[in-house]
Design brief:
By secondary structure, the protein is mostly beta strands. It is built from three helices and 69 strands. Strands 31, 33, 34, 36, 39, 41 and 42 form a seven-stranded antiparallel sheet that branches. Strands 7, 9, 10, 12, 14 and 16 form a six-stranded antiparallel sheet that branches. The radius of gyration is 51 Å and the shape is elongated.
Amino acid sequence: MQRGPAYLSNFLLWLLFAQTFADLPMCKESDFHFEYTECDVLGSRWRVAVPNKAETCTGLPDPVKGTQCTFSCSEGEFLNMQSQQCQKCAAGTYSLGTGVAFDEWDSLPTGFITHGVNTNGDNIHADCSNSTWTPKGDYISSNTDECTATLSYAVSLKEPGTIFFEYFYPDYRIYFEFYVQNDQCQSTDYESRGMKISDRNWSQYRVELNSGNNVLYWRTTTYAPLQDSAVKPVLLRNINISGVAYTSECFHCKPGTYSANKGSAHCAPCPADTFSNKGATVCHQCDADKYAEAGSGSCKARPACTKSDYFYTHTPCDSEGKTQHMYKWIEPKICSETIEGAVTLPPSGEKQSCPPCNPGFFITNSSTCEPCTSGFFSNGTACAECPVGTEPVMGFEYKWWNTMPSNMKSFNVRREFSDSSHGTAWEVAGEYVYTTPGEQDTDHLTLMLTVPGYRLPQSMAKASERSKQSRITFVFETTCSADCKFFFLAGYNQWNNDVVETWTGSNRKQSYSYLIQDNSTITFTWTFQRTEEFSMERMYSADVAKIYSIHITNVIGGVASQCRRCALRSATASSACVPCPPGHYMINGTGACKSCPPNTFIRAEQPVGEAACVQCGPNTKRNKAHTECLSDCTLHVHTSEGAPLHYDFSPLANVTGFHSSPRFTNKGLRYFHRFNMGLCGKEGRVPATCMDNVTDSGRDVKGYVCQSTVVPSDIRSQSVVSSQPFLIGDQLIGVTTDTTLNGISSPKWLFPAASSLPDVIFYYMSSETTQACKQGRSATIRLRCDPTVTVKDHIALPSNCSEGTCDGCTFHFLWQSQHACPLCTKHHYKEIVSACIQGIQKTTYVWQQPLQCYGGESLPAQKVSACVTLDFWLKFGVSTGTIAAVLLISVSCYFWKKTRKLQYKYSKLIMSSGGKECDLPTADSCAIMEGEDAEDDLMDLTKKPFFSKIKSFSREVSHSSVRTRIQLQGN
């Protein structure tokens, strides 16, 4: 058998490799590591040696049978691959046993991927490359812009496991979700991918994982394109994943932590003023001139104490009823008083008499303040029972600040969150409570008031659709040298609240009031930030915010500062207070109820005095409960021409929504303003609603007109995400064709009209006031007739005010529709009568143009009637004319003949008188005597033609007239 050239070349190549390996040194334990092969169908695997670097040594250990794939070590242990046995971790290290942990975020750990994209879809040029998750040392922080930032990690589990992590999610304007996908990119089913808003502390989350490949996703998107305050990022830390079956090494404790014992499952943080390095077994004490926060990996030099390191306060009243002005260091104290140039703590002031307790409280024998019991009131000294026929006015009124009230607390929210305490944020100072210097100028110094809920007094009517549950009023002042901000927020827990109002810079002492309409609004927060520009050096610690008084009404569990007269159920002394009947107000100081004038409603927050009755606006009527005025969507208008116009807007009464034109942020996020409006309707109508659905715990507002910011999104089940809702109008003021009503104006130039038909304007107002809109927001909806518009939601904004408002307070809308036209009547059409054809005449009715009505009366049907044709009347006319002409000629001939006889008689008289006209004989008669010769009547005229006789007659008449005048002149 012959061997070819190919066999010879392979043999030479083998010799070459054999020579090469013969020249390599033998592998040492440091030159390789052990790994397991993939598990086979029987659940078995092999342990193989893998060189750390290829072609560096030879003589690797042979593969050996490995442990079963289900084998795992306990917490605090690792798998020694050499012996294939579990061993305890050494001190200074830790292990999860069957999992991996990520608690150091100085950089992005291996295996994690983060990227930012624009999920808005319509603007591909938006730059989101820098909108990613950012490591911050102890945690990783999300983005705060409108891009979508994703953090992902892929892991292969040998057995079912879990993922555990801690997160801090304080801002509802960010949508934060966590989900898991398998190797087929199929999402694991969970009740909700969206995470819940955190309380003040870190929240924990744990979920089960299936064996096999799992890809973990954390994703955030901000839905606040017009935010008036900085968005707080989502923070992640301590990500632990179990189910990897084994770990072949223990992890060193990170700096600032330690593990003193072998077999630790985690490392403990070092206490304050101590530090540790990586893999530490103990924490080391800082030198006397240095300090460290809890969990620090190093110590810092103590700075010299300044005036910004202490604050002043008033001590609680002692047993003698005395208080003292005292200075305290900000805790934890990090400054040093021994360094050159350092200040020392000023001495305390002299003791002074304590001020009275807050209204509703009384002074005990131990000089402390306690609340009065139910049915009693107090001005701050002693409690007194409310007289018969009165009721206590419940609430809280804080105007003396010797101690922080029990339902109020202050805390500091650091821009970079950590677990360390940042001391007191607000401190009492007798006549006011104020912000302390703080540790950093960017800190949010927060004061929060919590109440259990609200209950209207017995003398007030039950809640209506627009009833006010309570009112909170506070007096404040800010003094700033930088761009400080003072926020007032309201919500239903510490972190899930809305910014009600914001003040910037220095503000003189002033009062602000806020109406509470939702019984779930139970927390009120005041936050002061000196600047948003981060700096480790404090430059604006002297900037301060002060609150002098806080007053909130109708609080459950509150105290009474006064009693007020109320209506009684009966005249008996023990009778209970009851509200006045609907439509009645209580006469101040008497408790008697009096009826309001017709078509008025009762001001819910002021049921006492005649001023409680509010007259309804034009074309509105009060509801049955006398709490508001409504429109039944009909209107009757009298025009200058005299013809009345009747409107029926019922087809437009349902809630209608529309979007403004698109807008874009600097990142390219496309968003809209969404307006929802319910034009009119009777009691029980469905109000317009705008909501915040960024989180599952979002809020909504209801009224006639509201607005929200809508962002298209493709990362959620909803096609759009709605945020930042607010009311524009929750009270109907009136319906009229006038362009001004109750101080609200709708100028004609906003929506120029080509038709002479007047627009109908609905006027609305909101009870919510803001710093910019001190009288509240308002809205006008101008209805314009356009019979060609068939859709019901053809609504437009002013062309020169694309946001819908020109001043930020009054919003204007133009609603064009055929349903905005007056109802058609007989004045809107005319009749056209046809010619009589073959004895038939038709009457047709057509609309007058341009058509300015819709609905109402319809055109009458065409009428058909009998008639006489033109031929008949023509024949009748010709015949009648012919007969009339014959009669006229006959009459003329008759009178001509008579005249001719008279002329003949006259001629005979002349002839008989001898030619003297002045000496005529007396005639017995001018008439023809009986028996006279009839031949005289003919004379010679019978011998002449007819027209010649007429001519002769005319000549004779002329001569006769001349002779008659001559005779008259002669006489």
